[in-house]
Amino acid sequence: MLRAKILFVGPSEAGKSVLANFVSESAEGAGGYVPTQGLRILELETPELGAGGGKGAGCRLELWDCGGDPKFESCWPALMKDAHGVVIVFNPDLRSHLKEIETWYSCFVQQQQLLDSQCLLVAHHKPGSAVESEGPALAAPLNKLKLIQSSLEEDPEDVRMEFMKYFKSIVNLLNESRDREEMSIIT
Ligand SMILES: Nc1nc2c(ncn2[C@@H]2O[C@H](COP(=O)(O)OP(=O)(O)OP(=O)(O)O)[C@@H](O)[C@H]2O)c(=O)[nH]1
Ligand SMILES: [Mg+2]
């Protein structure tokens, strides 16, 4: 079975743990805000995702929910290692977050030589904040990335669907690179 490692990163209190719980259907931590101490790993088995690639065995997704506090920076290299995808969660109402996510992108995507298509930006709206249809104006290079609006109160199923689309694209990439590896062994 394929295994994909997908990081959830971004500023503290943006909603990474809430979203990771939601997509993995974990009920953990329902209640008040508990800052993630370094790392939590959630698993998600998705029989429907592995298909497409013809191997049909499904895929095990590991969601690495990383603590956003800069005090965990010393752990980052270990977190980044061999990641297949990076989800950057931020609060679009906070100007400081728009700046901070440039750093997360630079460290976790650019410096790791991941493709832009392996990265997903999530403008997460906490309950009570308005969702603007255009979303926040992001500066280059972030404006090239896939950006989704997330509001678990207003449209949870849309959020789930966007995440599944993204996971599927990561699984496809993994399948392609595995096929290439197999070809290089045969030929
Ligand atoms: N009800 C509700 N509360 C939310 C939502 N998103 C965020 N919150 C609140 O915001 C708090 C912070 O969200 P977390 O997901 O814990 O933030 P985080 O990004 O994981 O923060 P760190 O672990 O410190 O990096 C939560 O404990 C909730 O109280 C949401 O969609 N619905
Ligand atoms: Mg957290």
Which sheet architecture does the biggest sheet show? 6 strands, mixed
Estimate the global geometry from the Cα principal axes: globular
In quaternary terms, these chains amount to single chain
| H/E element sequence | EHEHEHEHEEH
InterPro entries: P-loop_NTPase
Protein name: Intraflagellar transport protein 22 homolog
Pfam families: Roc
Organism: Crocodylus porosus (Saltwater crocodile)
Task: Give an account of the 3D structure.
There is one protein chain. By secondary structure, the protein is α/β, with parallel strands linked by helices. The chain has one domain: Rossmann fold (3-Layer(aba) Sandwich). Helix content is 35%, strand content 22%. It has helices spanning 16-24, 47-50, 76-80, 95-110, 156-186; strands spanning 2-9, 39-46, 59-66, 85-90, 119-124, 146-150. Strand 4 (85-90), helix 4 (95-110) and strand 5 form a beta-alpha-beta unit. The chain binds guanosine-5'-triphosphate and magnesium ion (MG). Guanosine-5'-triphosphate binds at residues 12-18, 32-33, 35-36, 67-69, 126-127, 152. GO terms for molecular function: GTP binding. Belongs to the small GTPase superfamily. Rab family.
